[in-house]
User: Which sequence fits this backbone?
């Protein structure tokens, strides 16, 4: 079945460091790909999405590019802030899992001043 | 105005009790969901309803009973609560069941933190 794999956390970075959180997926066809963010004690927010190969989703300085050839959707940010500390979830929907979101296990990010 | 709202946000209750979590969406969507986030932050769908009809029931114990009185509401009732039910429960909604592709987006509520003691 469809699945999403993310790098294990927790990830700890200093402020202004470069962030990469790796995400790879297994799905039939061309899934839609998402990054969700959960700040401490809060709900899930859609951070960005891409629905076809080579699309780049971006929001709040975060970017991710849909790479069909490597089945990846890595999240990047050039300069993280303390306020970016959160859990980040990679997720997909697909033609076979069209009616549900398949989430990765989440990656916890802590940014220290 | 919150698009998908859940109440209560926090709930602490004893084992064996029965409790409900309510969810309302004001987006005019016809599909609603319950997702569960366990203690390791793993998120998985529990139920989905489309036009008040149950569509997905992902091998959830029958102590969990969703109820959709109308398209804008999907409540989750849990009987005989167990310690393992402690989790964050997220309600969500979308316009139609087809989440794949560029047109549709699922919107999540703020979550309900359930602690069973």
Assistant:
């Amino acid at each position: 079945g469809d699945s999403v794999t993310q790098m294990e956390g927790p990830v700890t970075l200093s402020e202004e460091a470069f962030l990469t959180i790796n995400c790879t997926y297994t799905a039939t066809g061309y899934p839609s790909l998402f990054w969700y963010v959960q700040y401490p004690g809060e709900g899930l927010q859609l951070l960005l999405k891409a629905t076809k190969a080579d699309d780049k989703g971006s929001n709040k300085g975060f970017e991710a590019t849909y790479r069909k050839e490597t089945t990846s959707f890595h999240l990047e940010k050039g300069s993280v802030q303390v306020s970016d500390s959160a859990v980040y979830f990679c997720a997909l929907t697909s033609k076979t899992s069209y009616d549900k979101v398949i989430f990765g296990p989440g990656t916890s990010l802590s940014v220290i001043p | 105005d919150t698009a998908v709202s859940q109440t209560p946000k926090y709930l602490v209750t004893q084992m064996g009790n029965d409790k409900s979590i309510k969810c309302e969406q004001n987006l005019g969507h016809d599909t609603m969901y319950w997702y569960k986030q366990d203690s390791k932050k793993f998120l998985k769908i529990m139920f989905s309803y489309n036009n008040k009809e149950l569509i997905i029931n992902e091998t959830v114990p029958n102590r969990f009973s969703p109820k959709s009185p109308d398209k804008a509401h999907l409540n989750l009732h849990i009987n005989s609560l167990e310690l393992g039910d402690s989790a964050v429960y997220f309600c969500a909604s979308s316009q139609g069941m087809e989440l794949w592709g560029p047109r549709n987006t699922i919107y999540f509520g703020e979550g309900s933190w359930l602690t069973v003691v």
